[in-house]
Design goal:
By secondary structure, the chain is an alpha/beta fold. It has five helices and four strands; from the N terminus they run αβαβαβαβα. The protein is 30% helix and 16% strand. The two termini are 25 Å apart. Residues 7-18 have low confidence and may be disordered.
């Protein structure tokens, strides 16, 4: 499934949310999994049609990304290009034929900061339906 196809598969008021087996599994990745990816996870937690997790690429991350995370996800959103590069270097087999999208959200925000929420919504709008 291509990123542009994700929006077409999401529930609407006329079409109910799919069961958990049909939900789009989304992984958000940043460096420490404390601000950006965790904020993205919280924004989408419980949103119909999505199952979300987050992780970080650095050794001191709150939750460090594993092959299991990458294998679980249907699509992965990385905050910066360096996260994309690290994921590709560490998990080439797990990423085969899997969408990995760089959101280009810089590391200049704190957890759930209004500006971060706006930046995430703007970056994700072409790919996913947005929570209110």
């Amino acid at each position: 499934m291509r990123p542009a196809d994700f929006r077409a598969t999401m529930p609407t008021p006329e079409a109910p949310a799919p069961d958990s087996a049909e939900r789009l599994k989304i992984l958000f990745v940043c460096s420490q999994n404390r601000w950006r990816s965790l904020t993205a996870e919280k924004l989408y937690a419980g949103f119909p049609g999505y199952e979300v997790r987050s992780a970080g690429t650095e050794p001191g991350a709150r939750v460090r990304v594993t092959a299991g995370h990458v294998g679980w996800a249907d699509v992965i959103f990385a905050m910066e290009r360096r996260h994309v590069d690290r994921l590709r270097a560490k998990f080439p087999e797990e990423l085969a034929d899997k969408p990995l999208i760089c959101l280009r959200v810089p590391d200049e925000f704190e957890f759930m900061e209004a500006e971060l929420v706006d930046a995430l919504k703007t970056a994700l709008a072409p790919h996913l339906l947005l929570p209110e």
